[in-house]
Amino acid sequence: MTPRKVLICTYGTRGDVEPFLALAHGLKEAGFDVALATSSRFRAFVESHGVAFFPMSDTSLAALESPDGKTMLEGDSGLLPRITAGIRLSRRSGAIQDGLMRETFAAAIDFPPDLIVFNAKLFAAPHVAEKLGVPAFLGMLQPMLVPTAAFPAMGLPNLPLPGYNRFTYVLVRKSIGSFRRRMNRFRHEVLDLPPVRNGSAVLFPPGAGNIGVLHAYSSGVLPRPRDWPESARVTGYWRLDDGRGYTPPPDLAAFLDRGEPPVFIGFGSMPSGDARALARLAAAALRKAGRRGVIAKGWAGLDVEGSDDIIAIPPVPYAWLFPRMAAVVHHGGAGTTAEGLHAGVPCVICPFFGDQRGWAQLSAALGVGVAPLPRRRLTEDSLAAAIAEAVTNTLLRDNAENLAARLRRENGVKTAVEIITQTLSDPRRGETV
After folding, report:
1. pLDDT at 352
2. Is the distance from CB of 24 to CB of 51 less than 8 angstroms?
3. Which residue numbers delimit the Glycosyltransferase family 28 N-terminal domain (predicted)?
4. Nearest to 412 by CA among 221, 229, 268, 246
5. What is the side-by-side strand order in the sheet with 115-118?
6. Rounded to 5°, angle at Cα 335 from 60 and 258
7. Domain segments of the chain as ranges
8. Global pTM?
9. In contact, 342 and 368? CB cutoff 8 Å
10. Contact 334, 13 (CB under 8 A)
11. To 10 degrees, the CA torsion angle through 354, 383, 347, 165?
12. 5-237+410-425 and 250-407 share one CATH topology?
């Protein structure tokens, strides 16, 4: 019997790619023929896991690494410069999305799928599914699109106003709906499909049938709302591996062996206008708190001179590294937050923008992290104080260990694979989101 084919389309930083690669790996193990389409910079990463790769333009990620991208994301850049930089970037986003639309369709032509899984940055994927007559799932690393009265769209503030929570999802969908004109041009010129009539149809075109939404986080971290439709599921986290079998660089292994557990500091793919200053701030905060530290260089370009108490490291699997830390300091990306929660160590989250604020607030509410420390308020003193609290508060550690024990009993990839398998066996799906 010919294996069923699943095309996975995702775009963004490594944190946007790795969970979908984990899903691809799980689908392969279950006997599916799988391909993953994403930015060309991740070719080696994807192919190293034995998954077929279809390249997409790197233009959008390069824009975030540009001076305007760094200004927009830096918390201390000032409001007016950030707005101005954001406007300049938005003028480029339409043309970038046009290219991604065509690349999504090209991948589906080269690898005709029986089902498509996509992330919310690739608007064309559900329309391509409509054209091909195949089911599709939207994979979400955070709750931002399925309306609920239980909480606002992640990243937006909590306000005690009647109807506010549901309204936040209207705002998010309207922002995506601003691409409707471009989407309709793509539907007409490339897909030969009729236009969609409203903004919500940019991600949920009626002609595609009901598009299920798979939320790749744990209900132990954020319970599934009772007012969600059946088609919105919470699967558990999509993790690539648990770190077993990894051999660290000799200098890192020696550093870890010669003292108490250090504190990790890293800001992932967040670009920094002055990476050296941020690295110096991190090192000074560690020393003021009296803690050894591991600083991740990352895309932010953080680097410090090696010393007896601090080491700067290239990319290392967080699943291996974080359990060996006394605490983890990071930007609050969905993937980094997930690895921190699985490690069972307290966290200090310094959100830059978007859903990172939501994960920071949620970690504090769960009692596994200190109060959020936004990038704009990040100083040597504030970070040192947060680190000191994270490593000395025994209640934080107890809560973190208890939550991690629950998360380690879950298998989000397996749950998602079961849902996809069931859908391909019986493509009838529930109510629309």
Report:
1. 86
2. yes
3. 6-138
4. 221
5. 52-56, 33-39, 5-9, 115-118, 136-140, 212-215, 232-234
6. 120
7. 5-237+410-425, 250-407
8. 0.90
9. no
10. no
11. -30
12. yes
How buried is residue 191: exposed, middle or buried, by Cβ count under 10 Å (0-12/13-18/19+)?
Answer: middle
Q: Give the pLDDT band (50/70/90) at residue 58.
A: confident
Q: Which CATH architecture does the domain made up of 250-407 adopt?
A: 3-Layer(aba) Sandwich (3.40)
Write down the pLDDT at residue 12: 87
The predicted-structure confidence for 290-346, as pLDDT tens digits, reads as follows 999 999 886 555 556 667 899 989 889 999 999 999 999 999 999 999 999 999 999
CA angle 416, 324, 347 (to 5 degrees): 70
Cα–Cα distance for residue pair 255/262, rounded to 1 Å: 9
Which top CATH class is 5-237+410-425? alpha beta
pLDDT, one tens digit per residue, over 104-123 is 999 999 999 999 999 999 99
Strands in 298-428 per DSSP E: 310-313, 327-330, 347-349
Tokens 């503030």 map to which residue?
Answer: 157
Residue-level pLDDT at 13: 85
Place of tokens 């824009």: 63
- At 200 the three-state DSSP class reads helix
